[in-house]
């Protein structure tokens, strides 16, 4: 299996190189050269498999033999043994044909653990084989950072630097990043918003001298392996609900578009996914894009679902590439226009292709609170604000007879104030995280300045300390 860049000007890579490369050297994102295909019989044969078995089956064709089967099996089993639910990603029924797919049973209570627990083990395997070290730079609006810090803490071959927007993540999210004492992980509060953090990370990748000097790698969803891991739960959920003999739709709380792109990938592999509904908060750039055909940035507003307070939705580039018939010229022109003017217009064909699969809905802060309250009253289910945006979207879009799976991307206890204000119920952290809020924090505060951040990384990485 080879991987190609959405901008068409970077070398094709095998799985291990794509895993360690993060952003392609032409600024694009890697996608598989072709989508492995599963027949209806293959999908039916997944019924009754445990989550790690399903994961192993689905990951194997993407890895192209670069990791021996026994090692991959061990990696997958160890990754999902960190989850505290026997099903790993269980389904909960909340309405006659509405199901919530709970993705938050991992160590940091967000869906990011599903991919990050795998990513750290895959990287460790490849780095050990190659006797190599990396410096990881990541941007977070709250959840990726905690998941990455937890997953990579203590890993000998990686130094991890996580950039988060100062004052714009929830207190629980912040402490999950700032209380880890492992010497290889570093939290950096950036004076700016998530888009500034993400722009800094991409700028570091595009600074080839710095990138090569520190051996830069990425753990954001620019890294193909993040998306790959997330494909699995679309299959396990759909199969439990009757796929391939019954089509299923998914509604996904969306920011950087990685999670929902994994659903699109599952569909391209043959899973009968009827529709994918993008749920946004008031940072509704994707809902506006689907409505108007124009991707046009506006200032980010702070909401009660802070992990989705994003305007530059990285993985939309992967969808543009696919929906335009893999037209790297169109992708490059769109991304250049975005860089220069903060907007681009989709071609009529690309827009119509996207609309044939995707719908989109926006939920305001008030609607999100109302959905948390109504869902609790109607079904006894306590949703976090991100999940609630998707419940609202799913209900607005629902068609008679359609089986709708709503992705629950975070545990409500990560956002106790917003949940309590909406519902009157204050969710508490699970026992293994009790005491988190009392621990001492350690983090740097930097302005949104590339040179300053690069200097900080150069000075604090262990590779630098040893020189
Ligand atoms: C809780 C939560 N929900 C939804 C999202 C949006 O997911 P994505 O960025 O993959 O679209 C995020 C951040 O990624 C998140 O942390
Ligand atoms: N919502 C994310 C933002 C980063 O997204 P990623 O999926 O590209 O890592 C977060 O919580 O950090």
UniProtKB/TrEMBL annotation:
Enzyme class name:
lyase
Alphabetized, the UniProt keywords read: Amino-acid biosynthesis, Lyase, Pyridoxal phosphate, Threonine biosynthesis
| Ranges annotated as spanning the membrane | none
Q: Which residues carry this modification: N6-(pyridoxal phosphate)lysine?
A: 112
Q: Where is the Tryptophan synthase beta chain-like PALP domain?
A: 101-331
User: Example GO molecular function term?
Assistant: threonine synthase activity
Q: Does the keyword Transmembrane apply?
A: no
Keyword Lyase carried by entry: yes
Reaction catalysed by this enzyme? O-phospho-L-homoserine + H2O = L-threonine + phosphate
Q: In which pathway does it act?
A: Amino-acid biosynthesis; L-threonine biosynthesis; L-threonine from L-aspartate: step 5/5
Identify the cofactor(s): pyridoxal 5'-phosphate
Xref: CDD domains: Thr-synth_2 (cd01560)
Taxonomy, superkingdom = Bacteria
Q: Which InterPro entries match?
A: Ser/Thr_deHydtase_PyrdxlP-BS (IPR000634), Thr_synth_N (IPR029144), Thr_synth_N_sf (IPR037158), Thr_synthase-like (IPR004450), Threonine_Synthase (IPR051166), TrpB-like_PALP (IPR001926), TrpB-like_PALP_sf (IPR036052)
Q: What is its EC number?
A: 4.2.3.1
List, in alphabetical order, the GO biological process terms annotated in this UniProt record.
Answer: threonine biosynthetic process
Family that this chain belongs to: Belongs to the threonine synthase family.
Q: Which NCBIfam families match?
A: thrC
Indicate what this protein is called per its UniProt record.
Threonine synthase
Which species is this UniProt entry from? Chelativorans petroleitrophicus
Which gene carries the instructions for this protein? thrC
